[in-house]
Amino acid sequence: MSKIYSFLALVCIFFVTSCVPLKDLQYLQPSKNDNQESTITPVVLKPYRVQVNDVLSIKIKALDQKIVEIFNPSVSGMQSNTSSAEGLYFDGFSVNDHGDIRIPVLGEVNVIGQTLEEIRIKVEKQLLEQYFNTSANIFVTVKLAGLRYTVNGEINSPGSKILLQEKVTILEAIANSGDITITGNRKEVMVVRQNPSGTEIHAIDLTTIEALKSPYYYVQPNDFIYVKPLKQKSWGTGTNGLQSFTTILTAVSLIVTTYLLFKN
């Protein structure tokens, strides 16, 4: 019987370690030495620089809107049949492999590596130099046609998402994907980011308040977010205490029954 008691003790230890601690599930926890009411200064978001395959929304306005209609893509008859994101995809200006977009009348405009503000100034300057004077009061707006990102791994709703926002945090991106599963590792969320100089891979710990200071706290277009599984998932003991207890109790019952049968 002493062997059974020893085995049960080991099972109890395994049961305790197989459960996911609460501290591994909570987001943005303050450190022990920090005041919970202290102000955290988030990282300054750098202006995004346009990359190949981005889709831009460019609107040109003037006092007399008729004189600029030719520069704006027509969306009549399409918006009623498509969502806002789909409409922007079909009617926006896609950046080709050469880093150019094609605007009606203006032709090809190189935008690769430039910020949205730089593109706005460039288009506005070209319009004033070639087609209008300052009295026309040309007004140009340039935006990304939605912020697209992909989430995979231990997430309730994996896949690509498009949010019609200019700024999106990684917590918002995860929330829009159904949140991380209970067996997802919130302490090591991987972010794969494309930029003009290459690919960056970075891990961010979402359980600590220090995540607000990370340069990867804000999602950029085309980011790939991967949530690793916790080691508890590979053990297969369950995602919570009750499931773990049920699994282990079944295993213990089987082992004890087998032992008693052989003993007799």
Write up this protein.
- The protein has 264 residues and is an alpha+beta fold.
- It has 6 helices and 12 strands.
- It has helices spanning 2-18, 84-91, 116-130, 170-175, 231-235, 241-263, and strands spanning 55-61, 93-94, 100-103, 107-110, 139-144, 147-153, 159-163, 168-169, 184-195, 198-204, 218-219, 223-229.
- The two termini are 14 Å apart.
- Residues 76-81 have low confidence and may be disordered.
In short:
The chain has helices at residues 2-18, 84-91, 116-130, 170-175, 231-235, 241-263; strands spanning 55-61, 93-94, 100-103, 107-110, 139-144, 147-153, 159-163, 168-169, 184-195, 198-204, 218-219, 223-229.
Features:
264 residues; alpha+beta; 12 strands; 25% strand
In whole angstroms, the N-to-C terminal distance is 14 Å
Instruction: Report the total helices.
Output: 6
**Beta content:** 15-25%
Rg for CA atoms: 27 Å
Task: Kindly report the spatial arrangement of strands forming the biggest sheet.
Answer: 7-6-12-9-10
* Secondary structure: number of strands: 12
